[in-house]
Design goal:
Layout (H helix, E strand, L loop, with lengths): L3 E2 L10 E2 L22 E3 L16 H19 L12 H5 L11 E2 H11 L20 H7 L4 E6 L3 H8 L4 E8 H4 L5 E2 L7 E14 L4 E5 L11 E5 H7 E9 L5
Parallel strand pairs: 1-8, 2-4, 7-10
Antiparallel strand pairs: 3-8, 5-11, 6-8, 6-11, 8-9, 9-10
Helix pairs in contact: 1-3
Length: about 260
């Protein structure tokens, strides 16, 4: 991908760091369910309200904890997801990132490893406050997180795997953001132009697909004023052009 990263300040915060290849990473294939693909899937009605990460680089934590984990547990328990007690805290994840005190983001693998090992507490237990991104969870918050650990997490390596996983799940993708991504009308992400400048990496939660039009739908964390009321649409080919890595988090039954 012939491009350059510009030092100019993006209009929306980013914060996704590309995961380096690790031969120990699991593939999503063993976790895929044997089922025929639908022509269209849209999990957005089963998500909490659109989140706004504000000026902090918390997109990975928003995509993994707030969107993906909340979706999983909401589906399991038939929760009303407008309630912060039934939404999961991005700050629980981001406050434990490796790169501190700098607000430079984190990798998706790092976030999912925290959820696998520790779980994540609810948003009302650890509210979102960009002034507290370096304040780690208290013992009480860690205890509240424990029942919500993930079973595993794995890489998605192809569009076929992404479609199959989306039949029953959402997944988190890290993408390179160019200037036209920031103000995409209707949230429709254009292909990068040759030689375009990239502003950095950003994590999004992929929540559906349309096979006929070859488009994925995603939940963003830039508030409802962005895109399609906070959601975006990205063509299969465009996602492949911008993709850094993609991960599925495998849920586990609650445990104390």
């Amino acid at each position: 991908m012939a491009s350059s990263v510009t030092p100019s300040m993006p209009r929306y915060a980013l914060g996704c760091i590309k995961d380096p290849y690790d031969h120990r990473d699991y593939s999503i294939t063993p976790f895929l369910k044997a089922t025929s693909l639908a022509e269209q899937v849209d999990h957005s009605p089963l998500l909490p309200p659109v989140f706004d990460q504000g000026p902090a680089g918390t997109c990975v934590a928003c995509a993994t904890a707030y969107y993906d984990k909340t979706f999983q547990k909401g589906l399991e328990h038939h929760w009303t997801l407008a309630d912060p007690h039934h939404q999961f805290s991005p700050l629980y994840i981001y406050s434990q990132r490796r790169k501190q005190p700098a607000d430079e983001g984190m990798t998706i693998r790092e976030a999912m490893k925290i959820i696998q090992e520790q779980g994540v507490c609810s948003l009302d237990c650890m509210p979102y406050n960009v002034q507290r991104i370096n304040v780690p969870p208290t013992p009480e918050q860690r205890k509240a997180a424990t029942p919500y650990r993930a079973k595993s997490y794995a890489r998605l390596n192809s569009v076929i795997e992404m479609e199959a996983y989306l039949m029953t799940n959402c997944f988190v993708a890290g993408v390179m953001v160019h200037e036209r991504f920031m103000d995409a009308p209707g949230g429709i992400i254009p292909m990068p132009e040759p030689g375009c400048q990239y502003l950095g990496g950003h994590a999004i939660c992929i929540v559906g697909f349309d096979r006929r039009n070859r488009i994925f739908k995603f939940a963003n964390s830039w508030g409802t004023q962005w895109g399609d009321h906070g959601f975006g649409h990205i063509g299969y080919t465009t996602l492949q052009a911008l993709l850094m890595d993609a991960w599925g988090m495998v849920d586990a039954p609650e445990r104390g």
